[in-house]
TrEMBL record:
<keyword id="KW-0648">Protein biosynthesis</keyword>
<keyword id="KW-0030">Aminoacyl-tRNA synthetase</keyword>
<dbReference type="InterPro" id="IPR004524">
    <property type="entry name" value="Asp-tRNA-ligase_1"/>
</dbReference>
<feature type="region of interest" description="Aspartate">
    <location>
        <begin position="199"/>
        <end position="202"/>
    </location>
</feature>
<dbReference type="GO" id="GO:0005737">
    <property type="term" value="C:cytoplasm"/>
</dbReference>
<dbReference type="GO" id="GO:0005524">
    <property type="term" value="F:ATP binding"/>
</dbReference>
<feature type="domain" description="Aminoacyl-transfer RNA synthetases class-II family profile">
    <location>
        <begin position="144"/>
        <end position="559"/>
    </location>
</feature>
<dbReference type="InterPro" id="IPR004365">
    <property type="entry name" value="NA-bd_OB_tRNA"/>
</dbReference>
<feature type="site" description="Important for tRNA non-discrimination">
    <location>
        <position position="33"/>
    </location>
</feature>
<feature type="binding site">
    <location>
        <begin position="221"/>
        <end position="223"/>
    </location>
    <ligand>
        <name>ATP</name>
    </ligand>
</feature>
<dbReference type="InterPro" id="IPR029351">
    <property type="entry name" value="GAD_dom"/>
</dbReference>
<dbReference type="InterPro" id="IPR002312">
    <property type="entry name" value="Asp/Asn-tRNA-synth_IIb"/>
</dbReference>
<feature type="binding site">
    <location>
        <position position="453"/>
    </location>
    <ligand>
        <name>L-aspartate</name>
    </ligand>
</feature>
<dbReference type="Pfam" id="PF02938">
    <property type="entry name" value="GAD"/>
</dbReference>
<dbReference type="GO" id="GO:0050560">
    <property type="term" value="F:aspartate-tRNA(Asn) ligase activity"/>
</dbReference>
<keyword id="KW-0963">Cytoplasm</keyword>
<keyword id="KW-0436">Ligase</keyword>
């Protein structure tokens, strides 16, 4: 017999009754029934109930074991009494009578319990992550993650892609976040960087003639943490193709992701039609470039109904250049109580409030109610109602000003309204491509032009488009949104050196700086670079959605905390003086 087990803790059934078996695993739970010990023995695969009484030579030793001791048992498989069968377990028809016991690893008093569903502080869970990972939900999440990655790989190979690895130690390259720098011992005073993404390398692979590339790629960014973003490292399904247009990329990645979500989505409806929405329209309709389309609410511009109206706040606001009034329809939200609650929400978000109108039945017909309705009169309120397609029992909320100042709050309000009024479909995965991103943005204070999004995107219209107003330039750049999260980002790349120089020139980068920072890419474009494009899908975020988790750390094996600290490994740590001397570095104390 094998030194540790003849079966896993999920393998035994009624067909094994009478056999002598060997199991190894962790003590999940101990129950003492007056001289008879019952233990749920757990391994990665499942749970088997084992028991022992005073007639067994192992009884005295088994009395000593506690939760999370790692043990090996030898015993005989017995059938459970019919009334004691546990139909929820694959091994629920049997139990194993213990005849011999070996303690493989005793456990001290536990800082967190594996059995049960108790909640523990995140600090405790991350410090003792190896215990936290033993819990059933975490085992399932990590297994799901592994299965999702395997499925992605297979689906990419099935589409004719091959996987190639790109370097982990490379040069610093601006990708929109801070680099993690690595000092060089052989070149004192110089630094490598961990790649924020394989962006330049995958483009160079296309220039090298490989046509199709993918990689399950680790990426490193020194970012501020969020619930859906790691502050240090993450993984993405990275792909690139030559001789493609934007639609070719969409047609490639859609069946891969659709298949993954259908395979692991737990029966949720997976949208087959993925609309393409311009960045401008997404901001207008949803207040976000990653809209949740499970929520049917679309915001609209209603400025004309307030110009010269009796509501002085909006009327005067509209006299200023670049301002507008937007409405958030709220079907079934037509009660003063709900409207007041949403007004309070806006105040918590830092706004003075949120105007509203709601429509009610007064017996003699429909009436518009609320402070705004009184100020602008029945004719204007009726025009607003008709534009928004609302009726009795509905409401509308209004925000005004320069769109960039209130769009984010409007988007949040739309989400809250959809949730509170049960308009958002829970059992659905809704996708949308967001397209036509602006390449440039302007700093309001300095007036300086800089890249708003990926600097390597091909501008729509090519070199000619860069001769006009930079703020009007749109790129062949796209994101895929699902249920309010950005899952994919990509672009058709610029592959022409003259366009590259002009694009960076508009953002204040001279030719020498472009050659210095992107020399390999710039030089490669002089040697017959093909048109190419691709995208990257965030694996951590995809698994988070599939696992129905709200925090990305629930689907990462060993994540950092929100302060970018690894509490288990005590990182970041202080270097030794020898290490610093070898690298030619010294630390300047912070005031």
């Amino acid at each position: 017999m094998h030194a540790y087990r003849s079966h896993t803790c999920a393998a035994l059934t009624a067909a094994n009754v009478g056999e002598t078996v060997r199991l190894s695993g962790w003590v999940h739970r101990v129950r003492d029934h007056g001289g008879v010990l019952f233990i749920d023995l757990r391994d990665h695969f499942g749970v088997t109930q084992v028991l022992c009484d005073g007639d067994s030579a192992a009884f005295a030793e088994l009395e000593k074991v506690r939760s999370e001791w790692c043990i090996r048992i030898d015993g005989t498989v017995k059938a459970r009494d019919p009334e004691l069968v546990n139909s929820k377990l694959p091994t629920g028809e049997i139990e194993v009578y213990v005849r011999e016991l070996e303690v493989l690893g005793a456990a001290d008093e536990l800082p967190l319990m594996v059995f049960g569903d108790q909640e523990y502080p995140e600090e405790t869970r991350l410090r003792y992550r190896y215990l936290d990972l033993r819990r059933e939900a975490m085992q399932q999440n990590m297994t799901l993650r592994s299965d999702v990655v395997a499925s992605m790989r297979k689906r990419m190979w099935d589409q004719g892609f091959r996987e190639y690895q790109t370097p982990i130690i490379t040069a610093s390259s601006p990708e929109g976040a801070r680099d993690f720098l690595v000092p060089s011992r052989l070149h004192p005073g110089k630094f490598y960087a961990l790649p924020q993404a394989p962006q330049q390398f995958k483009q160079l692979i296309m220039v090298s003639g490989f046509d199709k590339y993918f990689q399950i790629a680790p990426c490193f960014r020194d970012e501020d943490p969020r619930a859906d973003r790691s502050p240090t490292d993450f993984y993405q399904l990275d792909l690139e193709m030559s001789f493609v247009e934007q639609q070719d990329v969409f047609d490639t990645i859609q069946p891969v992701l659709t298949g993954v979500f259908e395979e692991f989505g737990g029966g949720r409806k997976v949208d087959q039609e993925w609309p393409q929405i311009s960045y401008k329209d997404a901001a207008l309709w949803y207040g976000s470039d990653k809209p949740d389309l499970r929520n049917p609410i679309k915001m609209q511009v209603v400025s004309d109904h307030f110009r010269g109206s009796g509501f002085a706040i909006f009327a005067k606001l509209l006299e200023q250049e670049g301002t507008e009034i937007r409405a958030i329809p709220a079907p079934t939200g037509g009660s003063r109580k709900f409207c007041d609650r949403m007004n309070a929400f806006a105040q918590k978000e830092g706004l003075p409030g949120m105007g509203y109108i709601f429509w009610r039945d007064q017996g003699e017909g429909m009436e518009a109610a609320g402070p705004l309705a009184k100020n602008i009169g029945p004719e204007r309120t009726e025009a607003i109602r008709q534009q928004l397609g609302l009726s009795v029992g509905d409401a509308a909320f209004f925000l005004g000003g320069k769109p960039k100042a209130f769009e984010k709050v409007a988007g949040k309000a739309r989400d809250v309204i959809g949730e509170e009024l049960n308009l958002t479909e829970k059992d659905r995965l809704a996708f949308a491509w967001i397209v036509d991103f602006p390449i440039y943005e302007q700093d309001e204070e300095s007036g300086a032009i800089d890249f708003e999004h990926n600097p390597f995107s091909m501008p729509q219209g090519g070199l000619e488009a860069l001769e006009g107003n930079p703020l009007d330039v749109r790129g062949y750049q796209y994101d895929l949104a699902c249920n309010g999260y950005e899952l994919v980002s990509g672009a058709i790349r610029n592959h022409k050196p003259e366009i590259m120089l002009k694009a960076f020139e508009l953002a204040g980068y001279g030719e020498d700086e472009v050659k210095s920072r992107f020399g390999a890419l710039f030089n490669a474009f002089h040697y017959g670079a093909p048109p190419h494009g691709g995208c990257a899908a965030g694996i951590d975020r995809i698994v988070m959605l599939l696992a129905d988790e709200a925090n990305i750390r629930e689907v990462m094996m060993f994540p950092m905390n929100q302060r970018a600290e690894d509490l288990m490994m005590d990182a970041p740590s202080d270097p030794t003086s020898d290490q610093m001397m070898e690298l030619g570095l010294r630390i300047i104390p912070q005031d």
